């Protein structure tokens, strides 16, 4: 079973004040940190919601501006075409993910997400049609609500997961 690695990077970075994915931590961009966290677990990586010449980019679906579900939907479409069984997602603004967490998700059966940060998840390609139906039916973009509706497993991670929303958050990790 092959996994497509997906970096969700389509946010507007309003609270950060500049392009968060390009912000540097330890001389690497947050986007580069996200790609590095996925690399041991997947054969191919795409960046959802933004164009970057270093990696394959996929558009949010069915259109931009739908938050993480739009990125996940676009990535699932890409994964289906490329023959992957599932996607393993991380956001671009959580640069210090524990490798054990991603390994746990990579080997999960079915859909699974991190309870503290549902954008860190494994979504089977078989859920694409249900996601498209969910988004078309009522426009609900709450990731955890959709995850619960498909019976995805919520995995509680015992350690805090650092999330960068503001420049002060990045400074605290430096």
TrEMBL record:
<protein>
    <recommendedName>
        <fullName>Molybdenum cofactor guanylyltransferase</fullName>
        <ecNumber>2.7.7.77</ecNumber>
    </recommendedName>
</protein>
<comment type="function">
    <text>Transfers a GMP moiety from GTP to Mo-molybdopterin (Mo-MPT) cofactor (Moco or molybdenum cofactor) to form Mo-molybdopterin guanine dinucleotide (Mo-MGD) cofactor.</text>
</comment>
<dbReference type="GO" id="GO:0061603">
    <property type="term" value="F:molybdenum cofactor guanylyltransferase activity"/>
</dbReference>
<keyword id="KW-0479">Metal-binding</keyword>
<comment type="subunit">
    <text>Monomer.</text>
</comment>
<feature type="binding site">
    <location>
        <position position="93"/>
    </location>
    <ligand>
        <name>GTP</name>
    </ligand>
</feature>
<keyword id="KW-0460">Magnesium</keyword>
<dbReference type="InterPro" id="IPR025877">
    <property type="entry name" value="MobA-like_NTP_Trfase"/>
</dbReference>
<feature type="binding site">
    <location>
        <position position="20"/>
    </location>
    <ligand>
        <name>GTP</name>
    </ligand>
</feature>
<keyword id="KW-0342">GTP-binding</keyword>
<dbReference type="Pfam" id="PF12804">
    <property type="entry name" value="NTP_transf_3"/>
</dbReference>
<keyword id="KW-0501">Molybdenum cofactor biosynthesis</keyword>
<feature type="binding site">
    <location>
        <begin position="8"/>
        <end position="10"/>
    </location>
    <ligand>
        <name>GTP</name>
    </ligand>
</feature>
<keyword id="KW-0547">Nucleotide-binding</keyword>
<keyword id="KW-0808">Transferase</keyword>
<dbReference type="InterPro" id="IPR013482">
    <property type="entry name" value="Molybde_CF_guanTrfase"/>
</dbReference>
<keyword id="KW-0963">Cytoplasm</keyword>
<dbReference type="InterPro" id="IPR029044">
    <property type="entry name" value="Nucleotide-diphossugar_trans"/>
</dbReference>
<feature type="binding site">
    <location>
        <position position="93"/>
    </location>
    <ligand>
        <name>Mg(2+)</name>
    </ligand>
</feature>
<comment type="similarity">
    <text>Belongs to the MobA family.</text>
</comment>
<feature type="domain" description="MobA-like NTP transferase">
    <location>
        <begin position="5"/>
        <end position="144"/>
    </location>
</feature>
<keyword id="KW-0548">Nucleotidyltransferase</keyword>
<feature type="binding site">
    <location>
        <position position="59"/>
    </location>
    <ligand>
        <name>GTP</name>
    </ligand>
</feature>
């Amino acid at each position: 079973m092959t996994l497509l690695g997906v970096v969700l990077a389509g946010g507007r970075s309003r609270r950060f004040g500049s392009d968060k994915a390009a912000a540097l931590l330890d001389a690497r961009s947050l986007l580069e940190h996200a790609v590095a966290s996925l690399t041991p677990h997947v054969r191919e990586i795409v960046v959802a919601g933004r164009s970057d010449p270093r990696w394959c980019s996929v558009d949010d679906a069915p259109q931009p501006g739908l938050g993480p579900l739009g990125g996940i939907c676009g990535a699932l479409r890409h994964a289906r075409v490329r023959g992957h069984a599932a996607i393993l997602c991380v956001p671009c603004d959580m640069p210090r993910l524990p490798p054990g967490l991603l390994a746990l998700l990579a080997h999960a059966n079915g859909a699974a997400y991190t309870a503290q940060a549902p954008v860190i998840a494994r979504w089977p390609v078989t859920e694409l049609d249900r996601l498209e139906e969910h988004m078309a039916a009522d426009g609900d973009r709450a990731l955890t609500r959709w995850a619960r509706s498909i019976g995805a497993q919520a995995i509680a991670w015992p350690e805090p997961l650092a999330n960068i929303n503001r420049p002060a958050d990045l400074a605290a990790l430096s």
